Amino acid sequence: MPRKAQGSWISLMGKAVFSSQGIKYLPAVSQEGPNKGQTTLCLAKSSYDFENGTVSCQVRLPDPANHVQIGFNHGVAFGGELYAGIPPAGVASYNISVFANGKWEYLAQAGYGERPPADEDIEMEVRVSGSRVDLYINRILACSAYFRVETCQVALLMGGPKEMLVRAFTVRPQKPSAFVVMQFTEEFNALYDEVIRPTCEKYGLACVRADDIYSDGLIIGDIVRSIQESSVIIADVTPDNPNVFYEVGYAHGMGKPTILLSDKKREKLPFDISGLRTLFYDNTIGGKTAIEERLSKHLQSITRR
Q: Any idea which architecture 177-303 has in CATH?
């Protein structure tokens, strides 16, 4: 269910007022330091845990120099903080960026040569699906990027010379997914049904199986998109299957968390994946119990549950 902000916010930097009307940014001038005399940024943080889904809000910029971005990964120790929305003047009108080690990196930008219009309602929406991050402005896709959003509390980064009200802040969580890559035979069906799927569901992950997509006759673009939008890849590399190896390679290139499985009957893994951590299992009742326990530990580490 969508969740609207009802005051579960605090200001970690700058000034903001929280009420049933929304989050009001109040400009403040720095009184000391290298930025003395300049308007300070405001970082407001909510109580809403988020990893996958949609975050949206409405804003009316009172001045072209005002800016507002939805933030993720604040306080998370991995990779940097992710921000998407309307950045400060001097950058493109809309962007997705990362702040890490005191520096900004722009992952995607759109809207050059002109600031977003002032005194007009702007609907801003960020959709996170696995590693894919999409920024929509007034329901139009402005730009997309790929970055891992950790389980975090959603934030707002605001600034500019005039007061500004962010309204209708809404969080729509979506269940993260595990993309499972394996050969489509009875032997592997049993492993999927008895071990992989129930273990993933235990850790709040929806299972999407690559073989089901193949059976629908869909093109490789749908496979690639499924990998991009998943939170973790689980691949059984027991047989030499080119589809499996292609998808493992693509996931590895994206930096996607990947768990490899292999039956112990396989004598040797291919050279290119032999250095990757692989969970070996016995395809027996006792062996399935053991691989379930080991898979659980890996998923617990990835999902931090």
A: 3-Layer(aba) Sandwich (3.40)
Both structure tokens of 23: 């989050």
Helix axes 242-253, 220-229, angle to 10 degrees: 40
Measure the CA–CA gap between 28 and 18, rounded to whole angstroms: 16
From the list 93, 92, 67, the residue with the least C-alpha distance to 157 is 67
Tens-place pLDDT, residues 108-164: 999 987 889 888 999 999 999 988 999 999 999 999 999 989 889 999 999 999 999
Question: How far apart (Å, rounded) are the C-alpha atoms in residues 126 and 257?
Answer: 22
CATH class of this structure's domain 3-173: mainly beta
Tell me if residue 298 falls in helix, strand or coil.
helix
Provide the 3-class DSSP secondary structure of residue 300: helix
pTM for the full model?
0.81
